[in-house]
Amino acid sequence: TIPNMDFYYTPGSSGCRSVIMTAKAVGVELNKKVLNLREGEQLKPEFVKINPQHTIPTLVDNGFSIWESRAIAVYLAEKYGKDDTLFPKDPKQQALVNQRLYFDMGTLYDSFAKYYYPLLRTGTAGTPEDYKKIETAFGFLDTFLEGQNYVAGDHLTVADIAIVATVSTFDAVEFDITKYSNVNRWYQNAKKVTPGWDENWEGLQNFKKIMQERLAELKKN
After folding, report:
1. Which of 13, 14, 18, 168 is an active site residue?
2. What's the CA gap between 13 and 67, in Å, rounded?
3. Per-residue pLDDT tens digits for 87-131
4. Cis ω before 57 (30° cut-off from 0)
């Protein structure tokens, strides 16, 4: 069957951008539907029916609904990948990819959310301790990438795609990635080899604009 995929998203979101890049990597078209979160479009009954958790990104593939960006990426790779390079079938290789995905969600992206989200909400960033957690997370990633061109194994996987979506978000808020030489080397290469990088960068400009508008609004109040 030809995939008929509705993709509910917002261009600035890191998770949404990682799904867009994964879809590009497996060669499937997404029927993109932008949800305006500030207008509360994610709370409309028709969307809550699709995803009771009313989060983005959400993918509906021929009636099958799935959310959480990393779960969507794995699903796309397993179902539509030409082979198993993006999400290896070998248990050890797959475990490494999974570990990096969980690291991205629970440590790396989490450190971004804790420090930078309060800035969007209140105009004040998180605490110095929160900032230290970012540096610790980047330190870990730098160690993982010692002598490696990819985050999990010797080729591009969904773990690279998820982590490049996160790292580029830090780049957009001008966090200095160059302090971490392995991460920086990997990131410069990832920009060249990750399918859909251009759309990721476009989405980031959207994120930057929202961030700047929000800070300007908060200053006025």
Report:
1. 13
2. 14
3. 999 999 999 999 999 999 999 999 999 999 998 888 899 999 999
4. yes
